[in-house]
Amino acid sequence: MSQECVEKVTAFITREHRGRRELLVFDHGLSGTQVPAGTVEYGEALEAAVLREVQEETGYNGHLLRYLGQETLDLGEAQRMVVKHALLRQAPFADAEVVAPEEILGNALRRGLTVRLERQQEGWAYVYLEEFNLEVEPPRIIRSVGGWVPGDTLSRWVRRSFFQIQLYDETPERWEQFAEGPEQYQYTFHLYWQPLEPMPHLVAPQQAWLARFYTHLFEHSVGLSS
């Protein structure tokens, strides 16, 4: 297994609107209500990564209000983070056939995806890529694809940095953003502003992230919106 710590970023985008502070969130399929977040690319600064994620997922450019903090997570024995792109194969060999390429988002596990580790064998790992309906409790698996990948494409360590962001331009109250995914896949984000009081409900684990930095999101002055 790789000892690399995969870097992630999360953006809490806030504004002042009609005397109250609001948080920008989005709904995406069955993934629940979220805030923009993503994986840092190789050689990319954390600040550049979070602003890129903001632009990709909202369609608007933003600027940093403040760095909020960081956490390092050990995924434990059951989960792994994909460090570099890897094909799921039917056997633990480099020339083994690829598993159901049409089922795994462009024929490869992308850097930054979380997979479930089933077992390991001679430098290879059998993992499952699973998709969940996060709008039910507990989350329900709606798709699962398993296969072998080289062990050095996986890590158990993730480090996530959190930022408070303000957009440069005013936005509608609600809008859609179409973000390109791997190859032919495209994601649609349904974005809207929510009052920060009471605390918005986000999908796990984002709810815990919001709770951790909740009071800090009120401390920094932000621009006014009519």
What does this structure look like?
With 226 residues, this protein is mostly beta strands. It folds into two domains: 5-73 and 158-225, Nucleoside Triphosphate Pyrophosphohydrolase; 79-155, SH3 type barrels (Roll), CATH 2.30.30. 9% of the residues lie in helices and 46% in strands. It is built from two helices and 14 strands. It has helices spanning 46-58, 206-213, and strands at residues 5-17, 20-27, 33-34, 37-39, 62-74, 79-82, 114-121, 124-133, 140-150, 154-155, 157-167, 174-180, 186-195, 224-225. The strands form two sheets. Strands 1, 2, 3, 4, 5, 11, 12, 13 and 14 form a nine-stranded mixed β-sheet that branches. Strand 2 (20-27) and strand 3 form a beta hairpin. The radius of gyration is 19 Å and the shape is elongated. The model has no long low-confidence stretch (mean pLDDT 89).
Quick overview of this protein structure:
The chain is mainly beta and 226 residues long. It folds into two domains: 5-73 and 158-225, Nucleoside Triphosphate Pyrophosphohydrolase (Alpha-Beta Complex), CATH 3.90.79.10; 79-155, SH3 type barrels, CATH 2.30.30. The protein is built from two helices and 14 strands; from the N terminus they run ββββαβββββββββαβ.
Helix-strand blueprint:
Blueprint: E1 5-17, E2 20-27, E3 33-34, E4 37-39, H1 46-58, E5 62-74, E6 79-82, E7 114-121, E8 124-133, E9 140-150, E10 154-155, E11 157-167, E12 174-180, E13 186-195, H2 206-213, E14 224-225
